[in-house]
Write a structure and sequence with these properties.
The protein starts with a helix and ends in a 5-residue tail after the last helix. Helix 2 crosses helix 3. The chain has four helices and no strands.
């Protein structure tokens, strides 16, 4: 079972790394606007999942109904949308005609 889970995690990692690459196939530079937004949103989500949401759940009982991963993704997406960060969307990846 451990080998299967490790293999699955590698497949998921490989699939997600494409979001950190430009259309030319090179990794985004953290100094470019798109790279800074992508890496920044990733770090923000990780910080919310590990630190922000659990601390909020300790203080507010109603927050315990929301899993930290869901809360982190929703808050990060809302912040990125509000500040108009240049991030790839599902429409960019799957095509606008998919929706």
């Amino acid at each position: 079972m451990v080998g299967f889970v490790n293999g699955l995690s590698l497949v998921m990692l490989k699939a997600q790394l494409t979001h950190f690459q430009s259309s030319a196939g090179k990794f985004l530079s953290p100094l470019s606007p798109e790279g800074a937004a992508t890496y920044g949103c990733t770090l923000l989500t990780m910080a919310l999942v590990r630190l922000g949401i659990p601390k909020l759940q300790e203080k507010v009982d109603a927050a315990k109904a929301v899993p930290p991963t869901l809360g982190g993704v929703v808050l990060s997406a809302a912040i990125a949308k509000a500040f108009k960060w240049p991030l790839k969307t599902l429409a960019d990846v799957a095509g606008a005609e998919t929706f």
